[in-house]
Amino acid sequence: MPAPAVNLRDFEALARERLDARALGYYAGGAGDEVTLRENETAWARRTLRYRVLVDVGVRRLDAEVLGQRVSMPVLVAPTAFHGLAHPEAERATARAAAAAGTVMILSTLSGTPVEDVVAAAGGPAGGPVWFQLYVYKDRGATAALVRRVEAAGCRALVLTVDAPVLGRRERDVRNAFRLPDGMSVANLVPAGLAELPAAARESGLAAYFAAQLDASVTWNDVAWLRSVTRLPVLLKGIVRADDAMRALNHGAAGVVVSNHGGRQLDGAPATADVLPEIAAALDGRGTLLVDGGVRRGADVVKALALGAHGVLLGRPILWGLAVDGEAGVARVLDLMRAELDLAMALCGCPDLAAVTPDLVR
Amino acid sequence: MPAPAVNLRDFEALARERLDARALGYYAGGAGDEVTLRENETAWARRTLRYRVLVDVGVRRLDAEVLGQRVSMPVLVAPTAFHGLAHPEAERATARAAAAAGTVMILSTLSGTPVEDVVAAAGGPAGGPVWFQLYVYKDRGATAALVRRVEAAGCRALVLTVDAPVLGRRERDVRNAFRLPDGMSVANLVPAGLAELPAAARESGLAAYFAAQLDASVTWNDVAWLRSVTRLPVLLKGIVRADDAMRALNHGAAGVVVSNHGGRQLDGAPATADVLPEIAAALDGRGTLLVDGGVRRGADVVKALALGAHGVLLGRPILWGLAVDGEAGVARVLDLMRAELDLAMALCGCPDLAAVTPDLVR
Amino acid sequence: MPAPAVNLRDFEALARERLDARALGYYAGGAGDEVTLRENETAWARRTLRYRVLVDVGVRRLDAEVLGQRVSMPVLVAPTAFHGLAHPEAERATARAAAAAGTVMILSTLSGTPVEDVVAAAGGPAGGPVWFQLYVYKDRGATAALVRRVEAAGCRALVLTVDAPVLGRRERDVRNAFRLPDGMSVANLVPAGLAELPAAARESGLAAYFAAQLDASVTWNDVAWLRSVTRLPVLLKGIVRADDAMRALNHGAAGVVVSNHGGRQLDGAPATADVLPEIAAALDGRGTLLVDGGVRRGADVVKALALGAHGVLLGRPILWGLAVDGEAGVARVLDLMRAELDLAMALCGCPDLAAVTPDLVR
Amino acid sequence: MPAPAVNLRDFEALARERLDARALGYYAGGAGDEVTLRENETAWARRTLRYRVLVDVGVRRLDAEVLGQRVSMPVLVAPTAFHGLAHPEAERATARAAAAAGTVMILSTLSGTPVEDVVAAAGGPAGGPVWFQLYVYKDRGATAALVRRVEAAGCRALVLTVDAPVLGRRERDVRNAFRLPDGMSVANLVPAGLAELPAAARESGLAAYFAAQLDASVTWNDVAWLRSVTRLPVLLKGIVRADDAMRALNHGAAGVVVSNHGGRQLDGAPATADVLPEIAAALDGRGTLLVDGGVRRGADVVKALALGAHGVLLGRPILWGLAVDGEAGVARVLDLMRAELDLAMALCGCPDLAAVTPDLVR
User: Fold this and answer.
1) d(CA A130, CA C9)
2) Are A134 and A159 in contact (CB under 8 A)?
3) Contact D213/B343 with Cβ under 8 angstroms?
4) What is the 3-state secondary structure of C46-114?
5) What three-state secondary structure class fits C306?
6) Which among D50, D299, D346 has the least Cβ separation from residue C267?
7) DSSP 3-state of A185
8) Nearest alpha carbon to residue D297 among D12, D66, D19, D106
9) Cα gap B268→A42, rounded to integer Å
């Protein structure tokens, strides 16, 4: 019997044994030389925490409010594609675990599970919050139809990915000729009038699909358009510049996710921990500020909060948990993060999130 | 016959061969990814010593006064837990070696040897100085009883650990299911009305014990309370911030130990060598300033002094010496440090500690 | 069947298998300890790209004008010696691939193929642009004759190498006793009255040749002399200082190539990415500014442009492509670079080269 | 037949095969963890050379004047102990090679060859310059006698080592129980009334000897005393601080050697390349400024000169040459350095030493 996973890296090691090579490459890989992929992790580790002592931390509260929704901790489930590659219960399992953990699941557009089923798995419209990550397609009508569908399904926010006008080149996928297994499809797109992912394509099938369907001409004006077709708050995900973050708010976004797509789009993009401070300084408290990329430890979350984020998104580790043990694996991953965050806050002298102030990081 | 130990790293290598895996993991390990554990050592090595030449160093004096007590060198024995894991003579052996070396032994609360026996081993109340490291327990009456007991036993100072409102997560101990061997107990606590360490517990028994017994609600006010129940000087150990160091003195502490608990509490805490200068600058000569973490060479001690410390605490190397050869091993470790410190001072042009000035470090 | 090359590093790996040890050492090696060779590559990787989002990149244009000539992308073929070591079609194959790719081939003086044949392979004087890299020989008359010949052949610019008054010591060549294979000769020099490379020589035959033929006394005045014997624009290649770049323009050069000769001349020279910004600042838009050294990714090209270059030269990767598959291999290398550059620009929010501004790099 | 040595590192590799373990450890080792030993080398490599182009370097001159003596290049032979461990011809072989190379040999006090024989090997008092490195012994009369003897022998300068009031602890020697082979003695000391090195001693015999004979009480006043007993210029070797360098000149020294004793005394001392600039700035042209430590390449010499030194001393590489092939090996080492220096100067656009200006380094 293997030893139980003690931390998120253990989950990664276990998942590597269980996933087939194509799925593992798709989940684990990044663009190009994977410099940004690695830097995302090490940038958190380079920061130190100047903890405070002799603060009463007998009672800790990790709960937060994000986009007006209460979460039990400032750790949300990042949108990641095709959970069905990891486990037959796919996005349903993840949604159940996220809801049980009291946090948000952000459902990827590239999901094999209909959005209605995911919301149902999270407990229905009044259950755990589900947000929907989307792209703007060349077919704006179909995009609007998709938005209406996810609204109707009970999603509570939209997360517009802005760092992927074209798909990054993930060389592991090129080498593996990555494609979806037979029978897996992009469930939410076809009914909206959007094309199905092709069964096979030269190099990465996904890249071909992106080139054909997604609109590389999307601009800031389309943010206004998106807002005009939804009543949901819109976050822009994939921002690494202070000026773009300001522009996002000025164009009506409810906030931004500082992200480089987990190192999967532009290799050479800065680590998110390195750009977060200047973006937080520019926003100066306006809008919702989230961050993802390389978060593997509870102490990383404290660092992100101290650098100005309201919360973090957890991506690959959720997939490792899912691959290892389905819903229970995701639940364990979230439990580990909660326990580590609770411990790190206690040791930093922070009884609640408000106590996580910039002087803690350096 | 193995070659004799030439330096402290040799002692570590020899001790690794002798200790069982659980004890070794407990002694050697740090929290989380052990980043702080490693940084503690490398931060000393990053500093260079701009030695002075043509100073008369024909006679060197290493003796110092710490908390009004004369020590033969500014290297004290740090409080470390459960010496019985290393040698049957346990804390007695360490105390005998420290006293013979003319320096302070700081006895850990987590000792299997009664404090009276440790003081006796050090030569009694008029012998080698013994200080006592303690926590504030939920049961303040029992905490006060413990303080009275160690006072009565002849301890000459209290070292209050402030970086452990909860226990850090040392993953080696979790993996090893660390627990004390049968028959070993926390000898000083039960008579004071405090609970015995449980024989077994989920993950680390120690963590469970801490959560149950120690008070995570302790604040600066409790420093005043502690002072009200003792006539001994109180040092606060585990400080990494200049503002906390100032607060310590303002609340009546006699000084502080710059420490991150040897990297065993908050992984991501800064290396002590990196924060020592700003703390020294803030204190500006007020109070006693000690430091621990990663000191492995005599030159590290010179660096610590030049950065403003009055002395250093030596932790793990003492345990390596104890594991290798009991009292004689500890004595040899202290002898090596003394010889290295003497040599480093001579080569820096410092005939005594007063000559170790800030311009030596960079 | 080996997997197809996914990036330029794959081409390098494949080429290493095909080249004999002497040729490989000659192509891959650098001077001395090869510190500059390695730094050239890592200096690009150290820079990050602060990409912009929500810019319309539906249509991208990579074309540029360099020295008044239109190229399909700002990636030119650097002058490298003796393509015949890699493939029997030698410089002809490279020229065909460069012309087909719509970019400049810079022909090295140290070519086994007559310049007329290279221009013909590129499509003749009205075909793909060919520039000629040259040295100033002790025999100025012969140098002038060489210039007249390359002009007559249809070359459109001269690239004067200024970082090689004497030949760098490439220890791989010394160890391999590098010399040209029998039958290979420096085709363009003998008719101009210049000496043939000797068949054998102590240590590197090339070094002996340089010492005998090239003029280490060349100064800025010789730039004026060179301009007096040609109507072609002259670039100075091998500059790493802002003052030298200014001097180049002041002496009538049309521009400079920031280069350290691919780490083959002075080991210890700075990485080109590290000196490019100050040179760009000094030139402030005057003259043509190119750079080479360590460019291996499309994102490196974007970084170079953002740091102020008008284009980059690609050296060793062209040779790897040539060794792997002749003209088709070079074409594939250029295709890969174009695709990577196109992708990196799209992901940076740059629809054309004018959009690549300094704020992208950091 | 092994390949001939192409650079100084090759000589080191060859010497490692030939020397017995004790001699190799004594030559190669440094103090403590050998951090300074390694840093000495890497500090040169961290500096880059901003070479100048289009300077007439058709004729290069490497000759320099050091302490009023003409040398063919600014590379001197550092004082190193006991050449007899490397070759039976010992210091005689080194002196012959140095004289033939037109440079200074600095003879170590710890020589097994009488100083008169070394001067004779260098060509006599009018031959190659020999300087003498010395310590101040407790017995000042004997020290003065030694000075008179080396003066009479024809030495032209004294190099007083000031970084060794006590001997550094070189753990390789401790582990090897380093001692001189039978029959080797400190030839210049006994006639002067100084003690012979003991045949055996605890740990390093050398350390015991130092402790017994050398005077750790030497101060700046003793520099005046030394000057009073000699008409030779005195250099102080082992200085790493600007204030000490100024003090040296103010006490009548003719100059200083920036040195940390090759990393053999205080481990943790700064790399000499790192402190050279501030010392050069403080001296501002006054006195002779030499440097040693980690010089392995001609480009390192250019860097040293650009940082303000008048010349460098070469230590261990001389011993490697001596071990490999006696006088011829030392000659080849000096030839390699000369060729590398000549090449580096040519590539930096420096026809002579005066052209090596501070703007070259960064």
Assistant:
1) 42
2) yes
3) no
4) HCCECCCCCCCCCCCCCCEEECCEEECCCEEECCCCCHHHCCCCHHHHHHHHHHHCCCCEEECCCCCCC
5) helix
6) D299
7) coil
8) D12
9) 12
Q: Name every residue whose Cβ is closer than 8 Å to that of residue B301 and which is 6 or more positions away in sequence.
A: B74, B75, B295, B312, B337, B340, B341, B344
Numbers of helices and strands, H then E, in chain A: 13, 10
Sign (positive or negative) of CA dihedral D321, D325, D326, D328: negative
Q: Is the pLDDT of residue D333 over 50?
A: yes
How many CB atoms neighbour CB C286 within 10 A? Answer: 12
Cβ within 8 Å of residue A336, ≥6 positions away: A5, A7, A8, A11
Burial B123-157 (b: 16+ CB within 10 A, else e): beeebbbbbbbbbbbbbeebbbbbbebbbebbbbb
Q: Alpha-carbon distance D41 to D314, whole Å?
A: 12
Q: How far is CA A70 from CA A67, A73, A104, A251, D150, in A?
A: 8, 9, 9, 25, 87
Least Cα separation, residue A37 to chain C (angstroms): 13
Using H for helix, E for strand and C for coil, what is the string for C189-214? CHHHCCCCCCCCCCCCHHHHHHHHHE
Residue C181 has what pLDDT? 80
Q: What is the dihedral of CA D206, D208, D209, D213, to 10 degrees?
A: 140
Q: How far is the CA of D237 from the CAs of B148, D137, D160, in angstroms? A: 59, 16, 6
Instruction: State the amino acid at position A355 in one-letter form.
Output: A
Q: Supply the ipTM of this predicted assembly.
A: 0.96
Residue D1 pLDDT more than 90? Answer: no
Q: By CB neighbour count within 10 A (0-12 exposed, 13-18 middle, 19+ buried), where does D183 fall?
A: exposed
Residue length, chain B? 362
Which residues of D lie inside 8 Å of B (Cβ-Cβ)? Answer: 32-33, 35-36, 162-166, 168-169, 171, 174-175, 215-220, 222-223, 236, 238-241, 244, 247, 265-271, 274-275
CA distance D257 to D215: 21
Average confidence score pLDDT of chain B? 94
Question: What's the token pair of residue C111?
Answer: 């070519």
Tokens of A43: 């940038």
- What is the distance between the alpha carbons of residues C288 and C67, in angstroms, rounded to a whole number? 7
Entry pTM: 0.96
| Site from C47, C51, C295, C361 to mutate, A interface, most A CB atoms within 10 angstroms | C51
Looking at chain A, which residue has its C-alpha nearest residue B207? Answer: A343
Q: How far apart are CA B278 and CA B243, in angstroms?
A: 10
Question: Are the Cβ atoms of A6 and B265 closer than 8 angstroms?
Answer: no
Check if the beta carbon of residue B345 is closer than 8 Å to that of residue B50.
Answer: no
pLDDT tens digits for chain A (362 residues)? 456 899 999 999 999 999 999 999 999 999 999 999 999 999 999 999 999 999 999 999 999 999 999 999 999 999 999 999 999 999 999 999 999 999 999 999 999 899 999 999 999 989 999 999 999 999 999 999 999 999 999 999 999 999 999 999 999 999 998 888 877 777 787 777 777 766 554 445 677 777 788 899 999 999 999 999 999 999 999 999 999 999 999 999 999 999 999 999 999 999 999 999 999 999 999 999 999 999 999 999 999 999 999 999 999 999 999 999 999 999 999 999 999 999 999 999 999 999 999 999 97
Q: Which two tokens stand for residue A191?
A: 């009914």
Which chains are within 8 Å of C by 3+ CB pairs? A, D
Distance CA D197, CA D213 (A): 10
C-beta atoms of A267 and C299 within 8 A? yes
The conformation of residue C275, written as its DSSP 8-state character, comes to H
The answer to whether residues A145 and A172 touch, using CB atoms and an 8 Å cutoff, is no
The token pair that represents A121 in the structure block: 């798995």
Give chain A's radius of gyration (CA, Å). Answer: 19
